[in-house]
């Protein structure tokens, strides 16, 4: 298995930024500093503040913009060739408008799974035909809108297909439409993320009795069904296992095309295969492994027929995880039961999966002193705790770390996807500010990606000012 050698530069850039943030941070004041080696750029015409950690902003998200662009270029290069490939970035991994706008301008597509994500993709500048709508629970109005817009759709089940039939009412559609197939190819090490199990909620199970023939009949009856979707890869799934699921669906597409040619004289009814995303990420170290090139090589060896079709990919975590870092400071530290406990401001609100499923989603902890230097101290068993009011709100449990003290800085790398970009408002903890950065030779440049949430905004989302008086509704016929 190859590893990408950009790991060390990413680490060096991250350490420079942490040093710069530490320099600009003033614990005693909420005034914003710029730091001696920090410059500020703007996003959408809005000046970006230089990030800092203080009493009012004790946790921030950082995204290495060079790593974002490098990762996308590695993906494009890995899948380059004669086949037309649409790399639809998974919106759910990073629903942040400036980053999605970057991908739109770079020529990517966008995979969405809700009306909100669809609106965000359109606002970011993705053309409708470069958007893939994958929700397994599309409402009637959502389907009608997708047809009107011309976005690509993957249909989850036969009832949804019937609903689409009624909307089209015998007409064809310009949208690329396919059916999501569950190849039922097995479970990975993280059950909750395994999408190709025997009883997965996604798609139509191909191994079920009569399913294959029913699917072929569905395609033959609808010449506008011209793509097919499978998502067998995920964190905890090997490349070989992901490829096995794709191979099953490629064989189905080939059979549909043979039957369509024989019975209806159609030339290649299915022209595109959406292989989903799910390339695993190495959360244990800096190396980027497996790589997109590794995955392409496995697919070429195990499923060469895939490259006779146009392709959609739906990567998210593999594109963005390594670019992100959560940064917080230790507010208090204590020792209880022989274990050091570092109380920070980063927990379930920015690392929900790690707090609730720590065995499946362990994160590295990088300790720094208040000046932003890597912490050097006696190593002791440590819990790195978040601020939320439940005992399991931990970023790390019983981890051997240099002794952490109040004022130290804790960095949590590999969190650029599904972490601070997807906040959880437990205890009404605010959405944290997110900054992009580039650590050049002369300076660290920042760009504000998302402002932190104010207390006024939190209150505005907490509901109506009071419970309104009840209004009696009298049913017809009641006396």
| Multimeric status of the protein | single chain
Indicate the CATH topology of the largest domain: TIM Barrel
Beta percentage is 15-25%
Principal-axes shape call:
globular
Gyration radius over CA:
25 Å
- Give the class-level CATH name of the largest domain: Alpha Beta
How many structural units, i.e. domains? 2
Mean pLDDT: 89
Sheet of most strands = 10 strands, mixed
- What is the assigned CATH homologous superfamily of the largest domain? Alanine racemase
Which regions contain 5 or more consecutive residues with pLDDT less than 50?
27-48, 190-194
What fraction, in percent, of the residue positions are helical? Answer: 25-40%
Q: What's the N-to-C terminus distance? A: 76 Å
Task: Quickly give the CATH architecture of the largest domain.
Answer: Alpha-Beta Barrel
Record field, number of beta strands: 21
Structural class: alpha/beta
Cofactor: pyridoxal 5'-phosphate
GO molecular function, one term: diaminopimelate decarboxylase activity
InterPro entries: Ala_racemase/Decarboxylase_C, De-COase2_CS, De-COase2_N, Orn/DAP/Arg_de-COase, PLP-binding_barrel
Organism: Brevibacterium sandarakinum
Put the structure in a nutshell.
With 479 residues, the protein is of the alpha/beta class.
List the helices and strands and how they pair.
Layout: H1 7-24, E1 38-40, E2 42-43, E3 46-47, E4 59-64, H2 65-78, E5 85-90, H3 97-105, E6 109-112, H4 115-124, E7 131-133, H5 140-149, E8 152-155, H6 158-168, E9 177-182, E10 204-205, H7 211-220, E11 225-229, H8 239-264, E12 272-274, H9 292-302, E13 310-313, H10 317-320, E14 324-336, E15 339-344, H11 352-356, E16 366-368, E17 379-385, E18 394-402, E19 409-413, E20 434-439, E21 444-450, H12 455-460
Parallel strand pairs: 1-21, 4-20, 5-6, 5-13, 6-7, 7-8, 8-9, 9-10, 9-11, 11-12, 12-13, 15-17
Antiparallel strand pairs: 2-3, 4-14, 14-15, 14-19, 16-19, 17-18, 20-21
Helix pairs in contact: 2-9, 3-4, 5-6, 7-8, 8-9
Organism: Brevibacterium sandarakinum
Domain Orn/DAP/Arg decarboxylase 2 N-terminal: 66-320
Pfam family, one: Orn_Arg_deC_N
């Amino acid at each position: 298995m190859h590893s990408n050698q950009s790991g060390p530069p990413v680490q060096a850039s991250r350490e420079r930024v942490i040093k710069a943030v530490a320099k600009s941070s003033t614990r005693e004041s909420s005034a914003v500093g710029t730091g001696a080696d920090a410059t500020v750029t703007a996003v959408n015409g809005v000046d970006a503040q230089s990030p800092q950690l203080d009493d009012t902003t004790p946790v921030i998200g950082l995204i290495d913009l060079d790593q974002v662009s490098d990762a996308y270029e590695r993906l494009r290069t890995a899948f380059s060739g004669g086949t037309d490939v649409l790399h639809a970035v998974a919106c759910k991994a990073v629903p942040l408008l400036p980053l999605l706008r970057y991908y739109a301008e770079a020529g990517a597509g966008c995979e969405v799974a809700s009306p909100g994500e669809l609106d965000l993709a359109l606002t970011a500048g993705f053309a409708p035909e470069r958007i893939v709508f994958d929700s397994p629970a599309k409402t009637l109005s959502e389907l009608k809108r997708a047809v009107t817009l011309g976005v690509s759709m993957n249909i989850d089940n036969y009832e949804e297909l019937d609903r689409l039939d009624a909307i089209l009412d015998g007409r064809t559609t310009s949208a690329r439409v396919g059916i999501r197939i569950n190849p039922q190819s097995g479970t990975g090490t993280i059950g909750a993320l395994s999408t190709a199990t025997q009883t997965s909620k996604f798609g139509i199970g191909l191994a079920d009795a009569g399913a294959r023939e029913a699917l072929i009949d569905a395609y033959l009856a609808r010449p506008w069904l011209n793509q097919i979707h499978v998502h067998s890869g995920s964190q905890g799934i090997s490349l070989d296992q992901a490829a096995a699921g794709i191979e099953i669906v490629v064989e189905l597409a080939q059979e549909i095309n043979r039957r369509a040619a024989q019975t209806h004289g159609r030339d290649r009814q299915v022209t595109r295969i959406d292989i989903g995303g799910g390339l695993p990420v190495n959360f244990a170290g800096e190396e980027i492994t497996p790589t997109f090139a590794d995955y392409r090589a496995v697919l070429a060896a195990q499923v060469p027929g895939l490259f006779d079709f146009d392709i959609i990919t739906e990567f998210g975590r593999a594109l963005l995880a390594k670019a992100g870092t959560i940064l917080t400071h230790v507010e208090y530290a204590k020792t209880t039961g022989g274990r050091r406990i570092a109380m920070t401001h980063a927990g379930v609100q920015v690392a929900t999966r790690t707090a609730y499923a720590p065995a499946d989603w362990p994160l590295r902890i990088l300790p720094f002193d208040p000046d932003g230097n890597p912490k050097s101290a006696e190593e002791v068993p440590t819990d790195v705790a978040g601020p939320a009011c439940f005992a399991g709100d931990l970023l790390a449990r019983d981890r051997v770390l240099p002794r952490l003290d109040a004022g130290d800085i804790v960095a949590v790398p590999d969190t650029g996807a599904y972490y601070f970009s997807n906040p959880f408002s437990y205890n009404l903890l605010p959405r944290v500010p997110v900054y992009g950065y580039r650590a050049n030779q002369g300076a660290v440049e920042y760009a504000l990606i998302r402002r932190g949430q104010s207390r006024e905004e939190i209150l505005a989302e907490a509901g109506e000012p009071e419970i309104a008086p009840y209004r009696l509704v009298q049913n017809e016929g009641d006396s």
